[in-house]
Amino acid sequence: MKTIVFTVCTPDQYPFVKVLAESLPAGVSFNIGTVEGTLEKGVSFADLGHSEVASMQQRYDTTALAAASKPFFANYFLQKEQADAIVYFDPTIWWLGDWAELEAQLQNNEVVLTPRLTRTFGQSSYGDEKLFLNTGMYDAGFWAMKATDNTRKLLKWWQERLTDRAYFDVCNGMNHDQLWLNYIPIYFDNVTLNKNLGWNVALHNLHERIVTSTPNGWRVNQETPLAFFNFRESLSNNIVNQYLGALALQRAYLQRVQSHGEVPVSPFSVRTQLRPTVPGWKQSLRQRIQSVIDSIRYFPLYHKIDQ
Fold it and tell me: What is the pTM for the complete model shown?
């Protein structure tokens, strides 16, 4: 089975892309889609020839366009490479696992998704269960599909929705391409949800996945081999400092990124958008203002006002 890999990026993210490409097994065809500028080895979204490209470029910012373009690029690369299966990785992913495990998943299934969390919990430093309901149950930083009639219908369905509904607007049911993944296990056949704790480890699930370095490689919860980690959100959040193993892994990753140039500006982070970091002086001012408001709100009225 011929399985190809692709990512979508902007030119400034190329150092991330280089690390991803180097981490993949030799012989795996790696393709790059770009939504801004040009890369010597990349395919521009503008060159796909789809009728909706121009309107999408006008409608979306770069982050939303990168997300919305994924199913369009997937369809293009599948046809161009005459591949049997395709895998999408965010540019900020570092592959460390056994490629045969991923191939095995595609042998037995047509679509592979990873849930963003696998067990119940109350509150973590990233957020609570409500946050995942708002932002999506499955992570759009990775997915894999076999080339079948079923998945061709899936890609067409996804394209139609991302053409004009890929904004970041969780109050109106949109989180770029990710929230639409909630429907895939319902609408389409032969979908597997891979709950392997070593797959797609990231900031949002570190509360259930402790990363450690061992003589036999990186492990999750001491036992499960780490297949791949997505640094998309941890690069812009100090929360990762609470997880020493993940922090050590990130430092090793950044050394590789720096070998290809300056570390790019941190990519879009859902958590940062929903819970932005507030400077200390603003927090203090907010608390003082709230104290005044509370005093006014609960001030007792002892005096009768005479007309």
Answer: 0.86
